[in-house]
Fold:
Amino acid sequence: MSIMEYNGGSVIAMVGKECVAIACDLRLGNQALGISSKFEKIFPVTDKLYVGLPGLATDVTTLKELFRYRVNMYTIKEEREIEPDTFAHLVSSTLYERRFGPYFIEPVMAGISTTPGGKVKPFIAATDLIGCLNFAKDFVVAGTASSKLFGVAEGLWEPDLEPEDLFETISQTMLNAVDRDAYSGWGTMVYVITKDKVIQRTLKGRMD
Amino acid sequence: METSFAITGKGYTIVASDTTAARSIVKMKVDEDRIKVLSSHLLMACSGEPGDTIQFSEFVERNIRLFQIRNNYSLKPSAAAAWIRRSLAQSLRSRKPYSVNLLLGGYDTTSHRPHLYWVDYLGTMTEVPFAAHGYGSYFVLSLLDKYHDPEAPLEEGLAVLKRCMDEVAKRLIVNPSAYKIKIVDKDGVREIEL
Amino acid sequence: MARRYDSRTTIFSPEGRLYQIEYAMEAISRAGTVLGVLAKDGVVLAAEKKVTGKLLDLSGGGYGGSGEKIYLVNRNIIAGVAGITSDANSLVNSARSAAQGHLLSYDSDIPVELLAQRICNMKQGYTQYGGLRPFGVSLLYAGYDEQHQFQLYHSDPSGNYSGWKATCIGANNGTAQSLLKQEYKEDISVKDAIGLVLRTMSKTMDSTTLGSDKLEFSVLTVDEVTKEPKAKIYKPAEIDALLEKEGLAKKDDDTVMAAA
Structure:
């Protein structure tokens, strides 16, 4: 039994055309026993940046609170909101601080930034549990269903998807991947982030 | 092993915990109260390592009381739960972690809503409509999936609770002899017999 | 010998006074005015800027307020400071840390009085522990929490704090307080409180005209839909617009000349 699989749960993020999407499942378990079907693993960082924290559930809450603390301090002192790539490095260094006694979480980030010229830049990234960053151009996955998510995403994802198409792609990827994973599922939550709004939807999934 | 469970309903949370204190195969005590009253509208059922449960629950009880004396108001259930969870999460990465599993039942007097939190010794916390710890949880959770109603009046809630206790009595190899049952609602905490 | 009892903060004079504390308060009563009014649906805070001039670069700042005197401490608390600005910066930093520390422990916003207490504990320490100078700062805290709704507190260099319906610190605070005493009404609304604050400010400030170069302004309310606290620190352009609306805007000298 791996500690990363103790509570179950998965997160995926994808890049679209001037938009990004991030999705998580809603299960919280104690190994095979399901405890909650409303355990969200994605949290807002700013209104254009979200972070997903799959892994050991105690660390999901601990890190959610720790990132909120550090981002709030950054925002109030810097007098501006944190940029996605800056936040990625904050995540990385926070995890590496615990290099020899890590948080059992593999964070996934998705956000968009606007360049001074007004160009919209989609951003996704993921790290391992000690903060090794992976900036991807297509999609990133993490959690107990990560191997299955890779397979489905590889088949469904294509470049430059519009927000609604990206929503459909990420939703189908998530729903179908978690059905092959005993430790993820029990509903899905999807966020699609565009330059002027965030679409948040909760999807029903198989409850077995 | 000890069993405790809790359910929420319309304006109340019921917390029940068996009263057996056992060492190995021997029952040492059959009237142990495992449900601490933390404040006027907050209950905490503790199970786990015997020494740890007492030490940790008293630590929590005193700290919640200290906050109340210092600041002249009680922490609302969500804030108390967050603090208790953090204590467990910090303990987990210490030299000797507490092995204590908790159910926190409360009534928020500002928003007038009942709350129930499932917390384990790792510091995992989630708000749920019903929850259970111990071997009894394997029977009780599936039963509550079918019969629990978050809008049920108190009588119905107690009837469902009775069902749970009967099911544990029927299926679990060691039948808990008695339960302590406490209710928290707008009027505060009270203990009942079923 | 007059200097015997005022060179150190920790020593009482024979009359039982702590001179350094009194000097600190004296420093504050020369500082720019900060004025707060508690309304039934919000709190209003305004401050007079002392450092002005057309060469001053006002382009910086934005999120926590652009000025020198009004700061966002937490999403539910705004602080207005009077006294030595550098001392205030360090206190505001501590206040922000305390607020975020509370959020980390309890997953809820820090209650306003608790924050005031935390800062006062720190201020009090410097009246007792050796060799250091006390903070030369008074603060007004405008805040909201679920337990006691809207609140307005004042704290001074000795570490005393008290709650107020309307109060004022800094230069001319006596005049402002007597004006507030006359004009304050129970159950005042935020809308009326804004007017009251601006009128009082315009009467107590050294300069005759009000403008964003001399004034900082902020309002704390609760969002009607989400019920979450909403702290708004006005930007210079918004202050001018507000003054215009209240009929207290700066008279344009050229027009006056032309009319004459």
